[in-house]
Amino acid sequence: MNKKIISIAALTVLFILAGCKGGDKQQGVAGSQFVGGTQGLELSFVTGTPPDKVFDTGQPFGISVRLVNKGDYTIEDTADATVTISGIDPADFGVTAADLKRDSPDPLRGAQRDASGNAVSGADVTIDFPVSGTMQHQKTIAGSVSYNIRADVCYAYKSMTNTKLCVLEDILGTEGKTSTLCQINEVKSVDNSGAPVQIESQSFRESVSSSNKVAFVFKIKSVGTGTVHEKASECDGSFQKKDKVHVKVDTGLSDGLTCSGLQNGAASGTTFEGDATLLNGEREIRCTQTVNTPSDLEKLVTIELGYDYKQFVSKPLVVQHVGG
């Protein structure tokens, strides 16, 4: 009896371990090639840089920041990911403002899945400040003073979403077919790439618009911890540039695609694109598509979102007089 109990327990452990091992393959939609998640870049200070405490004179130190690309999009241009150190007057530490602002030293490859579906981590880089090597407090003080060292990263990023439209020869159902390839009037599943701005799950709904048109609606949502800014604005925080996302919808169906809720919207071939302003972190977009097909089919729809994204980390630095 004891041997049977041990065998059952062992099998239970094996099933649990197997489930954990395969868990990484299920982060996104089943069968998706996206790694998924709600992050773009992950930003952190390298342990001990800056140190928790330095003396007011005679102690050089540096600041090192780590960037890891957790999302699916690859940042090819190193100038598209810039880190800035703030919270101190550079002159008080013997450096310049230029010493405390640096681009990524290398391209930041996105996370991806291998042929077996396993997640492969994105690029991981370290950026050291100041450019000159070290910094040092310049004046003798009485007692101690605490500074809040902050590292901001501004980076250009893109989100990709895949879903499908149902296109039927008899859109209105007047021919009385008892079964069809797909359903028009329903919520469609979406497959999002890993990114801090996405198409909200369960928000993409297709419906009949007329005898030769279908309509669909979806919601863009900010799901990260940072702030969204207009594409190529270098994270400009002004009212005109903040909370702006460039949206590009491609149905693969020639002509007849229009979308509302976008500024400067324009159609070109199978696509419609324009700029969306997020309100309280989200924006609903409505589109209609003219269809003319001799058969029932499902059509892949891709939605691309482009934007600049800004986030930060901070930690205290205590400057203490050498004598205590």
Order of helices and strands: HEEEEEEEEEEEEEEEEEEEEE
DSSP helix count?
A: 1
SSE class = mainly beta
How far the N terminus sits from the C terminus, by CA atoms, comes to 69 Å
Number of strands: 21
Beta-strand content: 35-45%
Major sheet size, sense and barrel closure: 10 strands, mixed
What is the average per-residue confidence, as pLDDT, rounded to a whole number? 89
User: CATH homologous superfamily of the largest domain, by name?
Assistant: Mu homology domain, subdomain B
Poorly predicted runs are 1-28
What is the helix fraction of residues, given as a range? under 10%
Q: In CATH terms, what is the architecture of the largest domain?
A: Sandwich
CATH topology of the largest domain: Immunoglobulin-like
Cα radius of gyration in angstroms? 26 Å
CATH class of the largest domain: Mainly Beta
The total number of structural domains is 2
Which key terms come to mind for this protein?
Immunoglobulin-like; 1 helix; mainly beta; 324 residues; elongated; 2 domains; 6-stranded antiparallel sheet; single chain; disordered N terminus; 6% helix
Summarize, please:
With 324 residues, the protein is mainly beta. It is built from 1 helix and 21 strands.
Give your account of this protein's structure.
There is one protein chain. With 324 residues, the protein is mainly beta. It folds into two domains: 41-156 and 311-320, Immunoglobulins (Immunoglobulin-like, Sandwich); 158-309, Immunoglobulin-like. 6% of the residues lie in helices and 44% in strands. The protein has one helix and 21 strands. Strands 2, 4, 5, 9, 11, 15, 16, 18, 19 and 21 form a ten-stranded mixed β-sheet that branches. Strand 18 and strand 19 (271-277) form a beta hairpin. Mean pLDDT is 89; it is low at 1-28.
